[in-house]
Target: GDP-perosamine synthase
Amino acid sequence: MLQPLIDFVRDHYHTNDFIPLHVPVFGGNEKAYVAETIDSTFVSSVGAFVDRFEQDMAAYTGSPRAVATVNGTAALHVALRLVDVGPSDYVITQPLTFVATCNAIAYCGAMPIFVDVDRHTLGLSPKALAEWLEAHAYRDDRGLCRRREGNGVIRACLPMHTFGHPADLDGLLRVCTDWGLALVEDAAESLGSTYHGRHTGTVGDVGTLSFNGNKVITTGGGGMILADQALGKRAKHLTTTAKQPHVYEYVHDELGYNYRLPNLNAALGCAQLEQLDAYLTEKRQLAADYAACLAGSDVTFVTEPAGCRSNYWLNAVICTDHEQRDQLLKATNEQGIMTRPIWQLMNRLPMYNHAPAGELSNALWLEARVVNLPSGIRAGEEELG
Ligand SMILES: *Cc1c(COP(=O)(O)O)cnc(C)c1O
Model:
């Protein structure tokens, strides 16, 4: 499996140089749009590209409203505020995620509760969620979901669409409805992925995207809140210092944030979004080619869940055991092909190792076996050197 895989990656990227996991490619209107912001002097917190990026992203995802932010973590922080997550609350999330998911919960003064993932989606498991709630939570006479231990309010559930593969949103929505929990989707990795035809991040109460440099498209740094009109309006208010519109007075009516995406970054985003569909086509083909290359080997290539369309942001394999995982990581990295293990589980990090956690056997199983393979878009032939 190892040598054919290495040969395949070298052949696909057509180079003997180092092959990164995922790097941005700028082959469209990026330079023209960024130059336009400089020429106009509107490089900062207001400008036509911010409005256009928000409108284009709302249209692309089918979200009633899209609000641009300075990064995906800030988007997630405000998304949780939108569903009233506050100090001493709890938010249920998955241990198998990037640290930003948990950090956003902590920024609200809330604490994560870790519940297991499903092996076929890599995302939060509705079954594990329901079981944890049955055993550890109750609904009070106002309908609030509370922990049996200490009576703290569990405000929301925050699944993440791992590597672009949608979590089981119908299942999660059902459990959240039963228990009075808000559903916030961390769709940072899944721009372009759909769940039963609906864009990820638009199924729950609110969703968030990231345009960091390693994501499907980038604004340098940036993020987006996807919400309905009412929550979207409030998101805009909170992310722009909670300033009331006035011709000249400074009236800030609550604690807000300076989480605006600069126009300079939005210009990059508009140009990148124009190319997203082409990127997704190329990524889908690469995933199919990886699957074909690995067919018949003992590693399992991770494919989109039934009824979903994944953006295949980062291709992933599940090794038979930890030893094979290490062999794969060592052989590829030694040969200049960047591969990476999946994240360490969040419940082991010093900030979160006191947080409540359910039984996490699938997360542990995946943590020991999953490896990401190079997944970036190829640059134009003239840039290949
Ligand atoms: C990238 C990412 C984010 C947001 O990251 P930013 O760098 O702040 O844009 C949040 N959650 C997950 C799972 C991510 O992968």
About this structure: The chain has twelve helices and 16 strands. The radius of gyration is 21 Å.
